[in-house]
Fold these 2 entries.
Entry 1:
Amino acid sequence: MSAIDDLPPLRTVIAEHQLSARKSLGQNFLLDLNLTAKIARQAGDLTGCDVLEVGPGPGGLTRGLLAEGARRVLAVEKDARCLPALAEIAAKYPDRLDVINADALDLNPLAHLTPPIRIVSNLPYNVGTELLTRWLDPPEWPPFWSSLTLMFQKEVAQRITAAPGSKAYGRFAILSQWRTDARIVMELPPEAFTPPPKIHSAVVHLQALDAPRFPACSKTLFRITAAGFNQRRKMLRASLKGTAPDIEDRLLAAGIKPTQRAEELSLEQFCALAREIDKT
Ligand code: SAM
């Protein structure tokens, strides 16, 4: 029996199902169920919510989410070896855990979820930023999810929550902070995982705002942030040259000096520039 439910401890589960960690799948497992329940709590009240979990592995975080009262968990796992261990959890929580054996990049989870929806995951490093980018840039806003509670490499978490002028400030900060409240809620050392990765990790909680902080077209905003930060040491008149033929005039009209660099611009200034570029 474990600390949060009457299922076997995760070390026993891993040994019984021979779930040796595979680096190619980003497998660094959390085995402390008190810790996984604490991560689940960072997502807020889960009762009455469907939760999407990408990469449940042997089910440590899944068990935390269920013990914390999630109405339903949809767990998407690429590694078929984990399915028997996850089936044991599903049997203990009737009608509350659905497991899909798929690559999360190929699956439309909406078909399997009912709002309100929260996404809570200890993401595999190889697909983590791609999934975050997709969740942050859906076809419509507000998105299908109300919050994201995600474990990342600490440097990625810092890029999401970074302020202008800092080394970590870039495209991810703009993408995240434009339409969510984003903060780091937990930091975890390598020893929290089995096997321990080489890096430190952090959990970021992103709460979707009802509307963007400042008006702008997302395509234009992401295009100028990509261009600006791809050449972050260059002045904006050079780094944004390809985004509009009269970029210097557009910068000035938005109240931005063409000699400034992308890392000096606030989110509000990026949005003002996006609106200027979209004026005919
Ligand atoms: N949630 C577990 C935990 O916290 O201990 C495991 C987290 S481990 C960092 C990442 C998990 O994602 C692994 O179980 C791995 O097999 C799975 N995974 C890797 N790539 C995936 C993908 N493209 N789609 C779905 N799952 C994936």
Note: Strands lie at 29-30, 50-54, 72-77, 97-101, 117-122, 147-153, 180-188, 193-194, 201-208.
Entry 2:
Amino acid sequence: MCGIVGYVGDKQAADFLLEGLSKLEYRGYDSAGIAVYDGSKIRVEKCVGRLAALRDKIKDNVPQGSIGIGHTRWATHGRPSDTNAHPHTDCSGDFVVVHNGIIENYLTLKEDLIEKGHVFKSETDTEVVAHLLEEVYNGDFEESVREVLRRIEGSYSLVFMCRQHPDELICTKQDNPLVIGLGDGENFIASDIPAIINRTRRTYILNDGEMAVVRKDSIKITNRKGEPVTKKVFEVNWNAEAAEKGGFEHFMLKEIHEQPKAVRDTMSQRIAKDGKRIVMDELKWNADYLNNFHKIYIVACGTAYHAGLVGKYYIEKLARIPVEVDIASEFRYRDPIIDENTMLIVVSQSGETSDTLAALKESKRRGAKTLALTNVVGSSIAREADQVLYTWAGPEIAVASTKAYTTQLILFFMLSLYMAEIKGTQTEERVAELVAKLQQIPAQISETLSDVEPIKTFAKQYGFNEDVFYIGRSLDWDVALEGALKLKEISYIHAEAYAAGELKHGTLALIVEGVPVIALATQKSVYEKTLSNIKEVKARDAVVIGIATEGDDELGKYVDHVMKVPETDELLTPILAVVPLQLLAYFAAITRGCDVDKPRNLAKSVTVE
Ligand code: F6R
């Protein structure tokens, strides 16, 4: 996720560009840049760090001109640095581009362009777009951009500038947001409404495949084929704060709803063209090397630790390598048995969690080979680990982690399938079947999110005032742990998760009339066993809310309410089953009037031991 802006009008472009970017920093803030046409050339100013660093850099010499583009970055390809910051230019500096998204075929395009003599300055996927435009440019800016779009694959919102056409910007989008703000003798472009809301409330929201040529007094919108598109003006009636949250009441709810896109981004570039295998080009360990690992530790904290529990299940089930999962603050002091055939996987959204970082360093010191699963490019954990796989979930602002968890599960699943192929532990058919199921997950999460009203009603109806129990077996237990953590941290309700079969060994004493129990029963292999445990709590008059998969007509007979998630392979159900639990926690917290995005006593990134 990055933030992009554009301006064309009679005023100084830099004023809007800097103002707009400041409203988009929630989309990324590891570097920033602007490009402004000064009457003879396009001047680009960019640097690593937050927007304040850019402001400081140009404060005595702000680029002058009334057309320009800008960018605030959340690194995906290439670490945060001055050269990797946007805007990016071609060899001549005549073509300038800002981009939000991922160009999936950039390596092939880059090789080809290098062969044709183009010289690249950055490690980004975006720079190929500028060189490609230079390569195909035929004097017709619009037609040349269209040609570029025919050749690139991936997700993007893009804004182009060209020195030879100094009165227009061209923008387009595919799977990433882009809006045009309609001014009086000026027009604005932005990733998101907060950037323009102080200037205008009249907007066009671009759809995938649409392209706009934006001048100060006209906007021409066409579709992929170049046919004109007539758009209705969308009047924004949110206030600036709501706009930043995309119209959602809280960042947490926004991030829950971002999950279909986030998991799609995690998958992008990691599924082979034939759709049957996983590719992990970024993993520089070759097959022989990967085959040598006979033990894996997964180490993390909190939600990332819960993702690790699912990761263990995936790796053991699919790649048949023994895995131990540890809480980082315990692992580092427990004298773990590690040698050079041990792989240590650390999981961290922020990449800055102090205990996880310390565990990583300790394991390296003992000779383990280390792999980080993280969301933040260039974070301390990403830099320290031998290998990194990024979740590409975009910035997570709410303290309670949601999209980081689901993207971590996706990444673990893909890694397990990838290792399974190398180790020959699954048939080609089984791998292809699971990859096909995996690709349905974004749409299935959207389906789960399409009607949140029943979950809101449960949260209100039960009030969840004192203790809530979450039970499940196998992967359902892992998800139960995450569901209970969500409820605890944002609603301050005491919640505990138990392996359903373990209740009778003590905890069942706490189950009395009216105690809410959230029972997950999505795992077919242990379904009957789970059902018996549900009957045990029902017999003690607990109020049971069951989580089942579509097509399960049985569970409803034994519980008070059922929430259903779409049918998939049982390995993948955690990614769907966690969604209603996130929503339940969210609505319970709202019902109790809690500050959802900033729960008491907690911080987003725990950089102390
Ligand atoms: C809970 C939550 C925390 C984090 C934990 C690790 O919602 O967000 O439990 O998961 O502090 O953080 P990262 O993943 O940044 O290492």
Note: The CA atoms of residues 352 and 380 lie 6 Å apart.
